[in-house]
Amino acid sequence: MKSETVNGATFETWTVDEVEAGMESGKIILIDVRTPQEYMFEHIHGALLMPMAGFDAGALPGQSDKQILLHCGSGVRSEKVSRAAMDAGITRIGHMEGGFGAWKAAKKPYIGVNMGTGAPQRME
């Protein structure tokens, strides 16, 4: 993971492998900042949704037990929202490098829509 300090806050950039390990160990909370439509079509199992359009840093859960990491489609929106959260007083936050596109490129499992039935299913 890459880390930088910005005005006393720590901003981390995690790889998809680090995010997967963090989720499996229960050490992180992954928050998806994409649109509800993007999330409904496909998302990482266990990721919470807090779209960038209505993002409120004050509504983020505490980080006493788990660290907050954000992700989007490519990493651009999640980095922007992470930096806005730091501007709002969050002292430690991170995002997933490359976003959901990198997750899929790395062949990580996710929840997608079965186009035949319209039902969500695990995609490998």
TrEMBL record:
Entry keyword Signal: no
Source organism of the structure: Sagittula marina
Every Rhodanese domain range: 24-112
Signal peptide from the UniProt entry: none
Name the record gives this protein: Rhodanese-related sulfurtransferase
Keyword Nucleotidyltransferase tagged: no
Keyword entries, A-Z: Transferase
Entry's Gene Ontology molecular function annotations: thiosulfate-cyanide sulfurtransferase activity
UniProt cross-references to SMART domains, sorted A to Z: RHOD
Protein origin, superkingdom: Bacteria
Residue ranges the record marks as coiled coil: none
Phylogenetic placement of the source organism: Bacteria, Pseudomonadati, Pseudomonadota, Alphaproteobacteria, Rhodobacterales
